[in-house]
Amino acid sequence: YLQQEEILEQECIALISSLPKEKGWVASHLYKYQGFWNPPRHIQGIMTCQEHFEARDSDVFLVTTPKSGTTWLKAVMFTLINRMQYPINQEHPLLSKNPHDLVPFLEIKLYADNQIPDLSSFKSPRLFATHIPIFSLPKFVRDSSCKLVYLCRNPKDIFVSLWQFTNKLRLQEMGSNSLGETFDMFCRGVNIYGPFWDHVLEYWKESMEKPHKVFFLKYENMKERPADNLRCIAEFLGCPFSNEEEESGMVEQILKLCSFDTLSNLEINRTGRLASGEENKAFFRRGEVGDWKNHLPTEMAQKLDQITEQKFSGTGLKL
Ligand code: A3P
User: Fold this and answer.
1) pTM for the whole structure
2) Which Enzyme Commission number(s) are listed (predicted)?
3) Which among 4, 203, 215, 289 could disulfide-bond with 236, CB atoms 3.0 to 4.6 Å apart, if both were Cys?
């Protein structure tokens, strides 16, 4: 999140200077690009993906709103898709690497900082992650037969998680952002990849229209019925569990390996850092549904509920 303005291409600088601007939650300002707020580095990453990324029909994308459980689903989908290549044993890559190092973000990692990555070593089915809103996805992703698993979460828990996470990313001398100030910004949609509600709604609609293309998943549902959801994801991706796998307890093994307790207690996640500098442990906080109750005053909770009700009214979507 630091030094972002220093590594932008001229084309991006020109575009960004024409966009609406607000104070950011961490270091950089946020700008409204194609309807969503982001720091310049993310916007450049999105632009580079839009221009250069070519999807394969067999590609799989995990698309999420930030703090909806991306780290968890990265682990689950990586283990699911690669279960032949990486059986669950002491050598499993998740035991020595953070999920973000195994499943890269398109715009924040692979195509960040004006890089055009060589993806030739990625074996099909390739698994990528992204937070890019649906209408900003590279054209190839929308036009090809690739599949998208979309994960979202209740906005009260998202807000609390994001507020705490971004405060951890701020340099000590910057101090923390207050709950009240960030709450107002979140309600106005001014947060990375915000407005939250628009992000979710656009993918929800797409999942209704194209259920073979977009699988819509809620964090709360995954917590409540992890095995059923994992089986559904496997079916959706065309790699259902065989009878032998079911009998051997493969579903439960994947879920155990990827559980909050297992992942957060691994040495790599307690002490390691991502290449981009964030501490791995910052991605594991409580991992519970409803932790907002420990942080949000009633009026704030009610306000978020009201906005959610209003935004989702008539859509059939509830969070
Ligand atoms: P909390 O801050 O509410 O604890 P993301 O990965 O999208 O950044 O989301 C982070 C949120 O997912 C954090 O929520 C984090 O604790 C939670 N999380 C991380 N790993 C998890 C896991 N294996 N199972 C459940 N939740 C997990």
Assistant:
1) 0.96
2) 2.8.2.-
3) 215
Spell out the residues 6+ positions from residue 41 whose beta carbon is closer than 8 angstroms to its own: 1, 4, 7, 8, 28, 108, 112, 113
Pocket probe mutation, ligand 1, options 64, 72, 220, 289, max atoms within 8 Å of Cβ: 72
Please give the Cα distance from 171 to 174 (Å, whole number): 5
Are the C-beta atoms of 67 and 130 separated by less than 8 Å?
no
Q: Ligand 1 pocket test: pick from 71, 73, 98, 153 the residue with the most ligand atoms within 8 Å of its Cβ.
A: 71
Contact indicator for 25, 182 with CB cutoff of 8 Å: yes
Closest CA to 49 of 155, 136, 176: 136
Q: How far apart are CA 13 and CA 189, in angstroms?
A: 23
List the one residue out of 124, 77, 84, 104 whose CA is nearest residue 257. Answer: 77
Cα→Cα distances 311→48, 243, 319, Å: 31, 43, 11
The beta-strand segments (E) located in 80-133 are: 127-130
Instruction: List pLDDT tens digits, range 156-205.
Output: 999 999 999 999 988 888 899 999 999 999 999 999 999 999 999 999 99
> CB pairs under 8 A, 24+ apart, for 282-289?
282/165, 282/168, 282/169, 283/71, 283/98, 283/99, 283/100, 284/71, 284/260, 285/161, 285/164, 285/165, 287/72, 287/260, 288/223, 289/154, 289/157, 289/219, 289/220, 289/223, 289/224
Atom 18 in ligand 1: residue holding the nearest Cα: 287
User: β-strands 127-130, 60-64: how paired?
Assistant: parallel
Query: Which of 284, 279, 304 lies closest to 292 in space, CA to CA?
Result: 304
* Sheet with 60-64, edge to edge strand ranges: 127-130, 60-64, 147-152, 214-218
Indicate whether residue 286 lines ligand 1 (CB < 6 A).
Answer: yes
